[in-house]
Amino acid sequence: MAEKKESVLGGFKAFLMRGNVIDLAVAVVIGAAFTNIVNSVVKGIINPIVGAFGTKDLESYSSCIKGTCEVVDGEVQGIQLQWGLVLSAVLSFLITAAVVYFLMVLPMAKILAKRAAHDRAKEGVQETLEVSELEVLKEIRDHLVAQRGPSTGTGAGTGPGSGSGGGTGTHPTS
């Protein structure tokens, strides 16, 4: 039983030490701070602008579906739909989504596309180099065979003078 606890704790420790978990934690903290900024912009700028065109702040807009919706002793009488709060939350979401998309997702997608194109081009160059190296090696082999003279069957390279450095020491010029 003790081994199982150690393996579970070891697995949990490995999970926490992975880079993905740390990156996720940083993203959550930054996201929370960014949410506060967006909410402040909506409540401090957008809601008052809507209120300037209407009769009240955006979050104050509501409709009464049952009763008179009058405030008596600090309590609202009736059933009230606060659609201004929902509209304000939708605006906050849309602003957050737009900022994330245009300032983070779109530039990162362009960077990744450029990197992928660069990697594909690099892979093509590497493939060409490999083919070129193979061709050069074939030419060297053919040149050495031609320099050695005509072979006398399938046992070429096993007789005297067949290793590197063998031969007469003269090199034909091509």
Secondary structure layout:
Elements: H1 2-17, H2 19-53, E1 63-66, E2 71-72, E3 75-76, E4 79-81, H3 83-148
Antiparallel strand pairs: 1-4, 2-3
Helix pairs in contact: 2-3
Query: How many helical elements?
Result: 3
Low-pLDDT stretches are 159-169
Radius of gyration over alpha carbons? Answer: 38 Å
Helix amount, in percent?
A: 55-70%
Indicate the proportion of strand residues: 5-15%
| Overall average pLDDT | 76
Sequence of secondary-structure elements = HHEEEEH
Strand order of the largest sheet: 1-4
Number of strands: 4
Shape: elongated
Helix/sheet category: mainly alpha
Profile the largest sheet: 2 strands, antiparallel
Our measurement of the CA-to-CA distance between the termini, rounded to an integer number of angstroms, reads: 79 Å
Mind explaining what this structure looks like?
With 174 residues, the protein is mainly alpha-helical. The chain has helices at 2-17, 19-53, 83-148, and strands at 63-66, 71-72, 75-76, 79-81. A hairpin with a 2-residue loop joins β2 and β3. The chain is elongated. 4% of the residues are buried.
